[in-house]
Amino acid sequence: MKFLSFYRDTFFNRLILSHTALAIVLLGLAGGYLYTQANQMMVNEIARDSQSRLVTAKDYVERSLLQKYEDNLQNKVIPTIFTRNNSNLNYLLDNEWVGNLDLILSLQQDLDSFRKTSEGASNITVYFHKGNYVVNSDLFIENPENSKDFGFIGQLSQIAPNRWMIRTLPDGKQVMTYVVKLPYGIGSSSPKGYLYVDVDLEYLKQAVAKIITSSFERFYIFDANGNVLLQTAGENPEEVGLLQQAVGSGKTVSKISDSVRGTIVLSHLAGSKSELGWTYAMVRPMNSFVLDSKRMKTKIFVACCLVLVFGLAVSYLISKRFYLPMKKLIQHVRNLYQPGLNPGHANEYMIIGSALNFMGQKIVSLESQAKKNEMKNLVLGASLGLVHVDGLQQECRYQVVHAQLIEGDSEKLKMRYEQFDRTVPYEVVCLNSQEVAIIYFLDSRTEMDDEMVAAELDKIKDEVRGELRFGAGIGTSVVSPEKIPLSYRVAHQAYRYRFMYGPEAIILHSKISAFDPKPPLIPLATFQNTLKAGDVEGANLFIDEFAAILMERNMQLESVELALLQLVSALYETIIELGLQQIVPPSNLFDELKKDTLADTMASIRRLSERIGVHVRDSVKHKQAEVIFKLKAYIDEHLHEELSLNVLSEVASLAPAYISTLFGEVMNESFTEYVTRIRLEKAACLLREDDKLSVTEIASLVGYRNLQYFHVKFKARFGITPVQFRQTKPTASATN
Length: 736
Known about the structure:
The chain is an alpha+beta fold. It folds into 5 domains: 45-63 and 214-288, Beta-Lactamase (2-Layer Sandwich), CATH 3.30.450; 84-204, PAS domain (Beta-Lactamase, 2-Layer Sandwich); 392-512, 2-Layer Sandwich (Alpha-Beta Plaits), CATH 3.30.70.270; 524-607, no CATH class; 638-735, Homeodomain-like (Arc Repressor Mutant, subunit A). The strands form 3 sheets. The protein has a 6-stranded antiparallel sheet with strand order 3-2-1-6-5-4. A hairpin with a 5-residue loop joins strand 7 (218-222) and strand 8. Residues 1-8, 82-86 and 731-736 have low confidence and may be disordered.
């Protein structure tokens, strides 16, 4: 079973099945055609036999059966009646019956004799206009109204003479009637009477049935109007209707099939072939007619079976011959490519289809990648001999936009860009994950300037805000694909001005090309002096004014960079002069300070200048503090002496005014306030700790020569006199 399931879907089995199916179809078509021809042969044979038998039946009915009655009337009855008794029939035609009963009796006997000698004749009747009476083979009827045929007698003048017709008698019996005008041979003149003979229809049916060989066959006779004159079977309105349709169609043979009667063959003999204008028809079932066609069908079936067996053998051989190259091909495909299919359910078609599908996808991917690479090479200036370049729109202007992604990737920007309706044709080329080139194909006949392209880019930025962030530079308009790289380089150059306007700016080359190429003349010595003085606020103010000048004067990027280089050079020169290399190590200071934007660059310069200014300022304060600390030590040691700014200026070798200023900056109090505070605090300490010293001695030790002045200063400082202070023994915290 595993073997069968493995080979069930193989190409080999499919070949065998396909060839077998083809053989079956061809055999079916050929067998069906031969079978149809056999059926048609049967129908034709039945039709020929039916036509022959219909002709025989016609001749029998018209020339034998009915002709017998016509001949008897013309050759026996009428001549006998006319010649006997001095033409008593002519006499009766011209006279009434009154007084002529003997002649009427003689006529009745003659009519009865004719009826008896004519097999099948049920009655023979004579109607006389003169006297309006009727004589038949049985009765003399004085008044026709008393006759059973009164209705028929009343229509005799409207009935065509010398014609057979079928009618139903008052007792329900059907007869076929033949009417003759009297006197015989009168032609178109008004008749004096009529003679008609009735033949029992049942007798005629039995006579005709003798020539029908099978009980399944049915025979019909139709008059010129299509009415049934005679039928050998029981009444069948549906079959009569089919026969009438067949007669009306003009086809002498028709084959009809239904579920009740099976297949039947309708044949008829046209009325034009009948002397009486009648149509003869016959219905015959197909299964009642056994011919050689059945044997032919059997031979056809046997031949088809033999051909089918032969076809299976041939299909096996042909399939095997075709399968060997296919097997080698499949093995080669499997060696080169391993499709992701279950081997138990994958046939050769699926393997080849999967391989072709994979190769198709690979080709599409490679073509797409090739187009991307060629468009990238076109933008970057390496487009010679590229295939897809010829597919660019011609007879237009080209304008390239360089877009730089700040947030997101280039493929997403391309996808979102292509989702929006654009009035201008374009091509988006992803250069890398963060850079995109957009080629606009501008109509040479219309004017579309850079501002319109910039407006469209701004609109796109608004539409993708929150998903993507990007800036762009717009290049110049060129007239040929070969100059597209030039437009891109110009756009790329324009986007360098993001240094001044920010990374999300849309920058037009047409605008920046008109900028001033000269750098500004700025007095950098002022900046250097503020740094040397440690004036941080002044340095920041200078940097703000410098940045404002660069932004307001619409200078070219090179001029801005040159001005920045000059500023950084002045800054580094100051660093060298101040000996601050330990703070800012020697390196490429400009590259370190320069950032992506002018604002960030100025911020980095500001931070460095503030650092230098603060360092300079802190260094000056440290030196001043050392001087003050030295003077404080001198003051503490010489409180008992005369202390003044002049004395200290000699000690520190500084001007008295500068010493006074330093005291104010470092100690946050004046020189006099400091000396007074130190002397009084020293006096309070001595008053508290040394009871042996008098107030006068203590005042002298702290530098007060005037005791009263000492008391005033001490009380102003502590709120009490020195004596009171010693008596209260204040705590250290109170003293402080």
